Each structure stands twice: as structure tokens, then as C-alpha cells.
Amino acid sequence: MGAVRDVLDDGLGGLEHNFLTGRVEDLVKWSRSRSSWAATFGLACCAIEMMASGTAHYDLARFGMEVFRASPRQADIMIVAGRVSQKMAPVLRQVYDQMMEPKWVISMGVCASSGGMFNNYAIV
């Protein structure tokens, strides 16, 4: 009954009578809030760990994001794994701009977060 209550709280009524009334926008908003689609942007060794996180051992399916998207137009989360160089920053921005709203970015690993041991003039 918890999922039904969530739907009713989001402005969609009639579910307790086995039919659904409401706006398509409300249904899309509700469904997007319950699932996340990640686009991978692997630049270094952390990308290998990101691929491993999609396996059955770590079970990302319990969070609703077991499938990584190859297209940024299908994703709402971008996982940046690895160091971002000056030449790669415009490409990263272009991929980010192609994502649909709302969108989030996760920085995975010390290299993506602060440059790590590669922190020099060429790393953003």
C-alpha cells in the first residue's frame, strides 16, 4: 500500500479503484523519481571499478540502476570516473548538456574529485 500512497500523494488519483486518472506529466515525474539511469564517463582505472559495480556481486539493481546507459539523452546521472584533463573538459560538458533534466553528476574516486596523484596544470 506504500507505493499506492506515494502515487496518490504525487497528484494521481483513482488507483485504489484499479484505474488511474491524472496528467501524463505527473506520471512521468513519479516514475522518474523512482528510478535512476546512469551514464558512465570512464577516463581511467576507476572505470574498471565502475564496471565491476554493475555486476551481481554489488547488486546495483536494489537501487534501480542496474543498467548503465550509453546515451546521455537516456540518463539523469553521470558518473565521472577518472581524472579530467583540460582537453577532456569540453567533451564532458557537452555530454552533460545532452542529459535530460533533472540531472546529477557523481565524481567517483580521488582522481575525479581532486586530481589525485595526477594533480597538475593539465587536470581540471
Distance between the termini: 48 Å
**Major sheet: size, sense and barrel closure?**
4 strands, parallel
Structural class, please? alpha/beta
Please give the order of strands in the largest beta sheet: 2-1-3-4
What's the average pLDDT? 77
Report the count of strand segments.
4
Report the CATH C-level class of the largest domain. Alpha Beta
Q: Provide the succession of SSEs.
A: HHEHEEHEH
Tell me the count of domains: 2
Radius of gyration: 18 Å
Number of helices: 5
CATH architecture of the largest domain, by name, is 3-Layer(aba) Sandwich
Outline type: elongated
CATH topology descriptor of the largest domain: Rossmann fold
Give the percentage of residues in beta strands: 5-15%
Helix content: 25-40%
Unreliable segments of 5+ consecutive residues: none
Main features:
alpha/beta; Rossmann fold; 2 domains
Outline the structure in words.
The structure is a single chain. This protein is an alpha/beta fold. The chain has two domains: 1-34, no CATH class; 36-124, Rossmann fold, CATH 3.40.50. 33% of the residues lie in helices and 14% in strands. The protein has helices at 2-9, 24-33, 46-53, 89-98, 110-114; strands at residues 38-42, 68-69, 77-81, 104-108. It has a four-stranded parallel β-sheet with strand order 2-1-3-4. The N and C termini lie far apart (48 Å).
